[in-house]
Structures are given as structure tokens and as C-alpha cells.
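Sample intake sheet
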Amino acid sequence: MGRPSSELGPRAGATRRLGLLTIGQAPRPDGLAWEVTVVLGEGFAVVERGALDDLGPGDAARLAPRPGQDLLVTKLRDGSSVRVAEEAILERLQRQIERLEDEDGVEATLLLCTGTFPTFRHRRPLLQPQAALHGAALGIAGPDRLGAVIPLAEQRPQMARAWRERGAEVVLVEADPYGPEPEAAVGRAAAEARAQGARVLLMDCFGYDLAMRRAAARAFAGPVLLARSLAARLLVEMAA
């Protein structure tokens, strides 16, 4: 068995349980679960699990990507960030989906990552948000050019590929949400996207929080979409 799940709450009047599945460790120390519950509103409690929950200090480093593997970056419980290969955590994610459904009794689960993943086995609704978030951003942008903030320059090839598969050429800029002074980094990235012609901006990682969104909005002077809050609204729709 993995590490016990972490439930945020209880919230007043919470009667329904929703799962939050991170590619790192739960509970995340960056307030992600709390910001999701703010969007969900009363009537919901969230249960967190993570792909790396059963790993000790230093173990996650062994999951680092090799050449040709897609790179993901996430948070550990101690607040540090770690880089892992997507394929190295797929089975771990599958086991946690099953635990959220079978042990925690959630009605729906949100995968807290905007990367591209294969289909997982699940009996209750599971939101893999990349398609929904990318589609929403393109729909909002319409004929205007779309920009996307991503964490690392090394992720450019895989993210560009994901957008091309949707028939879109998007302005990609980088800002590490787990690095030093992330709000300043996000502000610089947003200004760069605007200078390159973007008129709508997607913060394309669950590591970006509401404070970073405000920093991006000040620098971008246009619509800024935040992955974690937009996905939380979709989770409410699924649970309804």
C-alpha cells in the first residue's frame, strides 16, 4: 500500500469527495489543493494522492528522464522540485487512481498535470486536463495569437509537438514556478509573449498559482488563463 491519502478539510457542509492526483507528492506544499477547493466552493472535500508518495528522500532522482523521454517537473512534500520522466510514473499514477476510487471513495478525479498522458483505467470520471485546457485556450483566443507559459526550456519540443497536434502554432515562453522569484519570472515571460504577438496567455502548468497569475496579468495586459483554476471549474462540471 502507498502512503495514506491527504484530505483537505473538512469544509463546512462538504458532502462529496473529489480526488486530486499530483505527479509529485501529496500533500503539495504550494497551496494547489487549497486554491482548487476555493474554486469548488462549499459541498466538496478533496482527497490528495501523488505518484511519488511512497518514495523517500533522494528516490525520486532515479526517475529522471533519459534522452528522448518527456520531461515533467513537480513538487515534493518538503517543498523541493524534481524532474521525472513521464513514462517512469505511469504505473504509479494508475495505482493512485485506483486507491482514490476504491479506498477514498471519490466521485471524480483531476490529474494535476497539463502534460500528455495515455488513457488510464478508471471507473469514475477522470479529467486529464491537457485537451480541455488547450481547447478552451484556443477557443478563447479565436483568431488572435495564443501564448503559453511553460516551466522549462527543455520542455519546448514536447509542448510544441502537443500544440501542433491540435493544428496550432503557439508562442511558448518559460518561467519556472518552482525556481527563485517565480512571480518575477512569470512577469518577464508574460511580457515576452506579448512582445511576440500573443493576445491571450495560458499558464500551462499546475505549478503556477493565483499570485503568479496576477503577476502575469500585470505584465501581459490581456486575458490570462490559469490551469489550476480552469481545471477546477471543469471538475465541478464533471462531479455535477
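Comment: The mean pLDDT is 92. The first helix runs from residue 32 to 40.
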